[in-house]
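Lab channel / #folding
Pinned by the channel admin:
"Please post every new chain as: sequence first, then the structure tokens as a reply. Keep commentary short and put observations after the output so the thread stays searchable."

First post following the new format, from NK:
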Amino acid sequence: MLILPIVNNRRVMNVEIRLKGASKIRQSVLYDHTKSSDIIVNREKFSESTYHSSRDKNAPVDFIRSRSLLYPRDFLVTTKSEADSPYYDVYRVPQPPKKVNDGLDQLYSKTIQDMQNEIPGKPQRGRYVSFADLGIQEPLSAERIEKLQRILLEARDSSNLGKRIEEAGISDLPETASFLNHFECTILSDTTIPEESLQDTLKALSAINTRDYRNLKKYYHMAKENADIYTKISYISKIVYDKPLTLSHSDRFRQKQYVKRMEDGEYPKIA
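Reply from TO:
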């Protein structure tokens, strides 16, 4: 389970990241010539490819794209085997979006590996995601976002808008928002805590400086960084596509599910 810690509206939230459209199509199966924890694209297997031995963090998505050039279609991901048997589950996953940068590709690869590491019948282990560690924030400077906003404000003819954005060297900004829209971001409602409570806890623990304090401090810093980066991308999505990114509440904790937009944290308009 990939967990994105994020601060929103004075609350610290834990957001589960999954790929939209990915669905589990088989449970507890064992196919001939198909291994557990594998990726199968057009009958070709990740485990039998040169990508499998690669140390490149983006090897999974590179393999998927390379085997989809002629026939881009849904592919399969198998989980690990059940705890006491050789059986595993199978996901069907839509094609990945085109590459924007290594950081976003790494996020995509992590979601694929998350499915591969799933053990049916056992609680999934949570793994934190830091947008900053992935380098997703690097292209999102205020100057580049201001340039994008200026082009959008000055555009009189939408037919050449894409060309103007490309000529300005900032086409990766709307592509970043589009790429992130391929992920489903779900707030795990029962894990949300008031930001003030976390700050008070950190203040109380600061004097002893234990491992727990340092880990909690790192977690809070990650949540604030993620919020800043997510908000910038959401702002880009809003000004380009008139649709900000959204977080939804998990129906595993609530029967009622509704959409939650970033509150009071939208990237400020640049004059």
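NK: The chain has a mean pLDDT of 90.
TO: also worth noting, The CA atoms of residues 81 and 88 lie 5 Å apart.
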